[in-house]
Amino acid sequence: MRIALITTCLEVGGAERVVTSLADSFVQRGHEVLIVFLTGEAIILPKDKKVRVVGLGLNSFGTLFSAYVRLRGLLAAFRPDVVHSHLFHSNILARLIRISLRVPLLISSVHNTVEGGRLRMLAYRLTDGLTDISTNVSHEAVSSFVEKKAVNENRMVAIHNGISTEEFRFCGAARAELRRALGIDKDCKLIVAVGKLSEQKDYPNLFNALKRLDPETVRFQAFVVGEGPLKVELEDKIDSLGLRDRVRLLGVRHDVPRLMSAADVFVLPSAWEGFGLVVAEAMACQRVVVATDCGGVKEVLGDAGYLVPPRQAKGLRDALHAALNLSAIDSAEMGRKARRRVQELYSIEAAVDKWLNLYTRS
What we know:
The protein is of the alpha/beta class. Helices cover 43% and strands 17% of the residues. It contains 14 helices and 13 strands. The chain has helices spanning 14-28, 64-78, 88-97, 118-127, 139-147, 172-182, 203-212, 231-240, 256-262, 277-284, 297-301, 313-324, 328-345, 348-361; strands at 2-7, 32-37, 52-55, 82-86, 106-109, 133-136, 156-158, 189-194, 220-225, 247-251, 265-268, 288-292, 306-308. The strands form two sheets. It has a seven-stranded parallel beta sheet, sandwiched between helices. Strands 10-9-8-11-12-13 form a six-stranded parallel beta sheet, sandwiched between helices. Strand 9 (220-225), helix 8 and strand 10 form a beta-alpha-beta unit. It is globular.
């Protein structure tokens, strides 16, 4: 089968990691895969060199027509059996391609409960007839799009993301090595968060919660992995709260599984999510997880971690305090339970099976 995966970008993000992981898995199963990304530079790439990756250079409205023409040409030459697009701009562009090019099967995937305002929801609704089926990453996210009238109820299905439980697993050696390199001694608890420095991730709420933690009760350091438009604002917030000696923004890291192994607690403070891919990744690494109850995070976490309301610093602080003060035995048992849940429900193998089934029966 020839599969064309179209995504808005290949920067650091959950949806982008999903696309490249799917591409690798499809190739391993004998399929031919083309990835086309609309804008920016390719920071995240598939591991398998047999996956062809092409950027369209769509960096302004003035380059839209040329990007459309180039995408049409790429698809006409590749002759895919399936075109599977991800994220708003790619979804709309892929649908419009169908006006001028025969596409045997087109699937549009959304990765969040929130993907823009009313104009974007209108664009989805007006072009819905050009796609065969739409998907979202959780049942709550599907319900959100139906409520916003972006899609009819029978035109969008939930397919959970999957992760590699081989790549994301606890490693004791990596934990010891990274904690030494990062200056974290054995008596200090390490909290790690991973995600774009954007409004969605609500890091100010996390910092307010960390400010409320008593350093006399538990010594901790908190590292945030990611880049984004709010970096300067968040640096100022850290300074204003007097957290400079306990909170660090690490920027982009390419050793996230190792960094998760080094952590004692993983935290997701988001205001909204679709699936919460990093939660599943942390669970696969047997970490104690504290996360906000938004989007599909509840579906992912189940009873294998701490779930708190979004945008409430006190509730987040209380959950972090409880997680940081778990005994070593209780922490290890929660970590094992979390990994078992991911292996059973959210492995990349299970996700690929679901996608290939959708490709062949749609």
